[in-house]
Design brief:
The chain is of the alpha+beta class and 981 residues long. The chain is built from 39 helices and 25 strands. The strands form 5 sheets. A 6-stranded mixed beta sheet has the order 3-4-8-5-7-6, sandwiched between helices. The protein has a 6-stranded mixed beta sheet with strand order 14-15-19-16-18-17, with helices on both faces. Helix 23 crosses helix 29 and helix 32 runs antiparallel to helix 33. InterPro entries: Metalloenz_LuxS/M16, Pept_M16_N, Pept_M16_Zn_BS, Peptidase_M16, Peptidase_M16_C.
Length: 981
């Protein structure tokens, strides 16, 4: 299950794009087809060809046939989220989400009659536990819970749901809970639709609350993880300020610690029985299927679910916000500001105006915030976004301060952009351009089955009709500039909540302490009768389809030194074009800074502001990406304007005008970003510490301009870096509707190519360190959890190892049904997130690595490290799990179809790794011949008794240093050690 709160928030950021249709609709009146046995609704002009069914038991079904690949993306949505949690047991919806992975009286059950007796005992004990205050009595009750749980576990197959899904080739099996929905996600092979529907109908029929206390401990870990999240502090405080009465703000999705400590299995079951009824659920699918045959299957499987009246949720009526309210919170990461305005819900008339206001303020190219704050570097970073919900919505402005700048100053600058919007001080064409931008985003979104299904989920959860959903663009086009300005004037004033997230020591939150848990027996080599019957079902075999680079990609010469890799887009009117250079930060410390500088410059004919506006007018966007070894310049947008977009980019590359003021601000901003990076937990562990663990103090990560060198760099040097790029051999990747000859003609006409190309600077070579002894590096950081990465360097990359390492990862530590996940999370409840994989590099001539990760409470660290260590040296053997892993790989590869730019980038990856063909061919062929003995041999050769570097990030005073010394020589590192500055 995902990190519920942050994932849901991130998913909502682009919410204004959902439901916008590219076509101009003549009519959005729904049409009901009643000639068929299963009547359904459609909307004229709907590009998704959506069918909406309502079955007899009330289950809503959304369908979008899309024959892009032989797979189907699925979501089962329940209109029940944290806003429906009882006030005395918050976090209940989220916890039930976790329990829906534990099986039923059929899935995961070896002897449910006996198990049920023990589960009833556990349920009653939890009722006693939650009403008992005496510490010793609580401990005694918990000991009984733990003991009986082990008895109950002997009758189960832990994680059988995940094993079955993995075996049939499902991908992305997960779920998320947010304020008004719980959604269960899968991506399945088309030929396994029958099995999947059988599984899901059974899953929702009668979920069993088994393995409750270990899963509860996992949720504790998730709760502790959120305590270390500054972003969580921001969001929870913002919503608490905006919603004083509504449960959006009075309770959180993860729940209160005291409620998690005192759970009630009976309450969880009652919640399930109340809300998990078919008339409160939607099954949403998009992909390769026959709608008529599929709806029959769905009805056949899901008719077992019986409808029931669902309690009506009456939203609390919030009082008007009449004056600003400032909320200050502290955390270890860098300072940040958010400003939130509250509005009516997604189905109100305000939603369309909010969509346009947000786009005019911020569209990452030519919005008021883009041009006035970000491009002029008045703040370090600023933006705007919408969080649309059913009962209320919020418009959020955010910003990060520059060095010496206060959060109050950032707030005033953000509010000043709203004032410009109120005064109508933006160009008239911006509204039309914003709507075109929304059309493009919609086209991109609907290129994937996932994007289609998420639109359905939103519509269902919001209670929005599909005609309203698809007609939004039509409504937006009717809004005039005056109407938008009037709306902003009337709705934005002092009615906001601002959260100042300051750097500092946060107010102490009591972490949830570790309860004593006896590791559960993991019945790996058994299966329920349900699983055996399901997996025995025959399905039509899908043959894999591998890439043939010479046939699937067009290779052309723009000139002898510039190659075009071409692929035609026959689906829509979007193009993507990349200039790819085989040089990177290892070749030049200045190249990344130079490309950053370019984003603040104009040409001799266009100011920086005018350049951004011209780009946005034609529906194009430009971005640059730099890595250690290569550079990408990306241009994308509408094909009809591709020639104009290419010429704008080329003019910028050859005619960028220096701007000393912009350069000085860029230097100041870069220094501030470096300071902020040393406050970021993710940066510290996953970049700085990981790089130090591989290379020592001198690494690609630390290979940057020193602060002194940065201060001395000139515009001439940086523009020289940009101009030199075009003098190096490179290639152009193109995916779009134009013919290869049209693309070649444009590329040849737009630029004068030199007769001979320059030789790039020699790359700095960084050798990863051979591990002579076990080392433990510790960095002190103010946090509740401890996070550990274990690195072991192995042999140099060899393509021949990929089939076996791929199968090994599937079996050992790459997913929820793997050995590592089952042992450390399911059986011992030692972590929320844990994995261990054999990782291959992105470039040939580099080493493979064993990478293991676990995030756990500091007081569990000894047990967690012991658990990882045992698995590294002794592989649990399970024929059942091996068969699941093997079947999963075979199914996934046979139904995977690389499309669009994936084809071009798969070839790029192959070249970098020295492959001359689609390596999936080898993986599919070779894994089919492998056995569990091969997995054992691989583990013995590559994992057992290997030297390692252990990276530990946590609060030093909470870490058991004596335990850490058992794993190697302990060395405490400073931030300067790992960042190099």
């Amino acid at each position: 299950m995902t990190d519920t709160y942050t994932t849901a928030i991130k998913r909502r950021i682009p919410i204004f794009t959902i439901g916008i249709l590219f076509l101009h609709l003549i009519s959005c009146k729904p049409m009901i087809n009643e000639e068929r046995p299963y009547p359904y609704t459609t909307v004229p002009g709907d590009s998704l060809h959506t069918r909406i069914y309502t079955l007899k038991n009330g289950l809503t079904v959304y369908m979008s046939p899309y024959l892009d690949e032989p797979r189907i993306y699925t979501s089962i949505a329940v209109r029940a989220g944290s806003k429906n949690d009882p006030a005395e047991t918050t976090g209940l919806a989220h916890y039930l989400e976790h329990m829906l992975f534990k099986g039923t009286d059929s899935i995961g059950s070896l002897d449910y009659e006996k198990e049920h007796v023990e589960l009833e005992k556990i349920s009653e004990l939890y009722e006693q536990y939650r009403t008992t205050t005496d510490t010793e009595k609580r401990a005694a009750i918990y000991k009984d819970i733990d003991s009986i749980s082990n008895v109950a576990a002997s009758y189960t197959v832990p994680n059988e749901y995940d094993k079955i899904l993995n075996s049939i080739g499902a991908q992305g099996t997960n779920a998320y809970t947010w304020v008004e929905q719980t959604v269960y996600v899968n991506d399945i092979p088309s030929n396994k639709l029958d099995q999947w529907l059988t599984m899901e109908a059974e899953r929702f029929r009668n979920p069993v609350m088994r393995l409750f206390h270990t899963e509860l401990e996992t949720v504790y870990e998730e709760k502790n993880m959120t305590m270390d999240s500054d972003s969580r502090k921001i969001w929870e405080n913002l919503f608490a300020g905006l919603f004083k009465k509504h449960t959006y703000g009075t309770q959180t999705t993860i729940g209160k610690a005291e409620h998690l400590k005192n759970p009630s299995i009976k309450n969880v079951i009652n919640y399930y029985r109340t809300y998990y009824v078919p008339n409160n659920m939607a099954l949403c699918i998009a992909g390769d299927f026959d709608p008529d045959a599929t709806i029959k299957l769905i009805d056949q499987k899901f008719s077992v679910l019986q409808p029931k009246e669902v309690p009506h949720f009456t939203p609390a009526v919030e009082e008007a916000i009449t004056e600003p309210s400032i909320i200050k919170v502290k955390g270890p990461e860098s300072e940040e500001l958010v400003i939130g305005f509250r509005f009516d819900g997604i189905n109100s008339s305000e939603a369309d105006y909010l969509t346009l206001a947000d786009k005019v303020l911020f569209n990452q190219t030519a919005g008021l915030i883009d041009l006035n704050l970000n491009q002029q570097q008045k703040v370090l970073d600023a933006g705007s976004m919408l969080v649309m919900m059913k009962d209320y919505s919020t418009h959020i402005l955010s910003g990060k301060p520059r060095e010496g700048q206060s959060l109050e100053q950032v707030k005033e600058m953000l509010l000043a952009q709203l004032e410009l919007l109120k005064e109508g001080k933006f160009p008239d064409w911006l509204l039309e351009a914003a709507i075109n931008d929304l059309k493009i985003e919609q086209l991109k979104l609907y290129e994937s089955n996932r994007g289609r299904v998420e639109a359905y989920v939103d519509a269902f959860v919001w209670g929005m009709t599909w005609p309203d959903h698809v007609s939004q663009i039509e409504r937006l086009e009717k809004i005039t500039k005056k109407e938008l300005v009037d709306f902003v004037r009337n709705h934005y004033s002092s009615n906001y909540i601002a959260v100042f997230k300051e750097h500092g020591t946060p107010k102490s939150e009591t972490k949830i302490q570790k309860p004593p848990i006896t590791p559960l027996k993991v019945n790996r080599d058994t299966s329920s009768q349900f699983a055996e019957k399901l997996l025995a079902l025959k399905s039509e075999k899908t043959e894999p389809l591998f890439l043939d680079y010479k046939k699937d990609i067009g290779f052309f010469d723009v000139n002898p030194s510039i190659k075009l890799h071409y692929l035609q887009n026959k689906e829509n009117e979007l193009f993507s074009l990349y200039y790819v250079f085989d040089i990177g930060k290892n070749n030049s410390k200045k190249i990344e800074l130079a490309l950053d500088y370019l984003s603040y410059l104009g040409t001799s004919k266009l100011t920086p502001k005018e350049f951004s506006q011209e780009l946005y007018k034609i529906g194009a966007s430009f971005s640059a990406f730099t890595s250690d070894d290569y550079v990408y310049l990306k241009l994308s947008g509408l094909e009809k304007n591709s020639a104009a977009a290419i010429r704008l980019l080329e003019n910028l590359l050859v005619d960028a005008r220096p701007d000393q003021e912009a350069l000085e601000k860029l230097k100041e901003g870069t220094l501030k970003e470096r300071t902020d990076a040393k406050l970021s937990k993710k940066k510290i562990l996953f970049e700085a510490m990981t790089s130090y663990g591989k290379y020592g103090p001198s690494s690609p990560f630390t290979n940057i301009l020193s602060n002194k060198e940065l201060e001395q760099v000139t515009s001439q040097e940086l523009l020289g870096e940009v101009h030199d790029l075009l003098q190096y051999r490179h290639r152009v990747l193109y995916y779009g509707p134009a013919s290869s000859q049209e693309v070649l003609s444009e590329l040849r006409s737009v630029r004068h190519y030199p007769e001979s190309m320059k030789t790039p600077p020699v790359a700095d070579l960084f050798r990863d360190l051979e591990q002579q002894s076990n080392l433990v590096y510790v960095v002190d950081y103010d946090m509740t959890q401890a996070e550990v990465i274990l690195l072991t360097r192995d042999e140099l990359y060899n393509p021949s190892i990929l089939p076996l390492s791929t199968l090994f990862n599937e079996y050992y530590g790459g997913g929820m049904s793997s050995v590592v996940f089952q042992e450390l999370r399911e059986a011992k409840a030692l972590a929320y997130s844990v994995f261990s994989v054999y990782k291959t590099p992105k470039q040939k001539d580099e080493h493979n690595y064993i990478v293991s990760y676990i995030g756990t409470q500091a007081d569990k660290l000894p047990e967690a490290l012991d658990g990882i260590s045992i698995l590294m040296n002794k592989l649990p053997k399970s024929p059942e799990l091996f068969a699941s892993a093997l079947n999963g790989i075979q199914q996934k590869i046979s139904t995977e179809r690389l499309t669009r730019t994936e084809i071009l980038f798969n070839y790029e990856e192959a070249v970098r790794l020295g492959h001359d063909h689609d390596i999936r061919t080898d993986i599919y062929r070779e894994t089919a011949r492998m056995s569990l003995a091969d997995i054992e041999q691989f583990h013995s050769a590559h994992f057992r008794n290997q030297k390692h570097v252990m990276l530990v990030l946590g609060k030093k005073k909470d870490l058991d240093m004596t335990t850490l010394k058992k794993y190697g020589t302990v060395k405490e590192l400073t931030l300067k050690d790992i960042f190099g500055y």
